[in-house]
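ugh finaly. both done.
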Amino acid sequence: MEVSDDVLTRDVRTVADLEALYASKTVVATTCLSLAHPMFARGRKFDVCIIDEAAQAPQLAAIGPLFFAEKFVLVGDPHQLPPVVVSDSA
């Protein structure tokens, strides 16, 4: 079974198609900031939210996904790289 972006989105032509695809999945992988997309604001809750490399995520980026789950797991090593901030004004 091939699982790629092309295969998963082959039949997606509209926003409604994308929302239906997303709603049909039991596991969704995304970035912390991608959860700001309106598609995720439809009230769907997950059982668990897992944030990998949590030590590298800025606090404001990591807080958002936690509102989408009943339980959450933050995985990361605080002794490795700090959050990456590219903006001069941050």
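ok and the 2nd:
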Amino acid sequence: MSAAQVPGAEGKRTYRFIIYKIDEKKKMVVVEKVGEPVLNYDDFAASLPANECRYAIFDYDFVTEENCQKSKIFFIAWSPDTSRVRSKMIYASSKDRFKRELDGIQVELQATDPTEVGLDVIRGRAN
């Protein structure tokens, strides 16, 4: 498996988000979509397919109560209830190995529906 650069790693903001999918024929994780730094959470959420599993990296910018600008890198295991059972099993069994290949992950989320990866959840986990 190969991983693209995590957004924000090494001080370079390359992407706001990266969506990965497992190519079942090649048996490897591939980049499906990248979001430019100017995009926001809504663009990211709209990129997650409603009925298919994905891995995602999201670079979340926020301001602390002390008025400091911060950023957290989220790893999201997206596994909707409506996705195929086989797909859910493949993604679940590959997640830890794939995540080890990524540098800079600060928060991990597992989500089965959009409410579990909503902006309020991201915001709450970032602090």
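summary for the 2nd one i guess: The longest strand covers residues 54-63.
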